[in-house]
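Input for the complex:
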Amino acid sequence: MRIGKELVAASATPLVLALLGEGESYGYALRKRVEELSGGELQWTDGMLYPVLHRLERNGWVEASWGESESGRRRKYYRLTARGREQLEGERRQWQVVDSTLRGLWFASLDPASGT
Amino acid sequence: MLEERMAEWRSWLARRPAIAGADIEELEDHLRTQVGELEAAGLAEDEAFLVAVKRLGDLDALSREFAEEYSERLWKQLVARPEAGTLASENRREAWIVVALATAAAAAVKLPELFGRSLTGGDESFYARNLALLVLPFLAAFFARRRGLDRVSVAWIGGLFAAGAAFVNVFPFAPGSHTEVLAALHLPIALWLTVGVAYAAGRWRDPAWRMNFVRFSGEWFVYYALIALGGGVLTAFTLFVFETIGLDAGRFVGSWLLPCGAAGAVVIAAWLVEAKQSVVENMAPVLARLFTPLFTLLLLVFLGTVVATGNPLDVGRELLIGFDLLLVLVLGLLLYAISARDPRTPAGPFDALQLGLVVAALAVDALALWAIASRISAFGWSPNKVAALGENLVLLVNLAGAAWLYARFLRGRVPFAELERWQTAYLPVFAAWVWIVVALFPPLFGFR
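Predicted:
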């Protein structure tokens, strides 16, 4: 199964915010975590993650700083801000509504007898 | 090996104006981490690099994403940035070709002097008739090359230019002939629309491409005006610095700097519009929005004054041309407002204002038509009056159609796209009319 482009794009913001909610991280690690958590079903084109991160930074939801990787390379780390946490909460509620709506529909269509 | 490829990849990214140095560094860290991990999983170094680069995704798409996030970065790079996917060498070649074409246009303006046609002494009518013919072929050539025009189209466009040259140079115009002046005034418009065929390449029937050409024309005009402004400053300083050492640069300015600069700027302005069209918001629509209310006000006050004072329109020839120009200007405001509007948005107050402008222009047009008609009945037909009459009718039909569609659009009856289609479908009418004035008026009126 491949997840459609629109859905991947729409879910990128809450996913990144939620992952950063777990603690400071950087691009490559974020991508890896998403892949692990989704069992490899949710695949990002790696490069696209960065414009998303920079947009979140512009909105003031995350802040970035340059640090060092284990091997001593310069690496850009991102962490959630207070505003980002609010945004994450908002996103979470929105997605829950979508999720529960769909759940209700899936449930009804699985069990036609209950639809009457 | 890896370092070499990495450097190559970095320089690839560095050419994208939307991706800055720090972004490249961040992406490089990503790439290196990925390569390291793939190598640990048993891939060879170059394999790992290829896979990692592929996972990073298409660079064009990536730089578009960055461009959306960082549009202000593009503002700083107006000129001569490589387009996505073109190589730097190709871009440099394009720049050279533009310079060559501009130089050729500048030289072409001086070419007739080799045959004893002096720009400043006595041959003004020759230059008036031929100036567009000397310059615009280079603009057409610029687009023909850029768009990779096929041979048939090139032949058609060449043929139209040749026909224009034949009409204005072979016709035996009487001295001080009115039809000659009319032909000289209309030929540049006819040739400009011919350039439009080259601009749109094979798609000149496509309304979207016609609209693109309308947009291009407006932007070109803005750029040309800006270049002219700079040229004016250059001219003033040329005169000034030589005056300080007691030399008069007036002759050089008059016979070289101004004509050659004006000709070369035609190509340069087109290139600038092309180079940045996707980058910066267009200027012409902004001007149209700014001046639409002011011109509406002008027309309404004028109409009100005519009604209040009862003064008849005393139209001589110059005034007739003045009124035509006014209507052309209104049409331009309308066209640019239309070209910049997102056809998906619903009607707003500006649209109502736009309709007001068109209706006011229609009233003024009707007034002018009536004045011309009364002049014709009093003094008989003349080439100037027929040209003015025809122009007014052509514009009247256009504006009436636009007003009708605008009114229907405001009441939600038709989508805005209908208005766009009406204007783009009308362009050939303008082309037909100017060619008629160039090609048929002189013989019809006996070259008077």
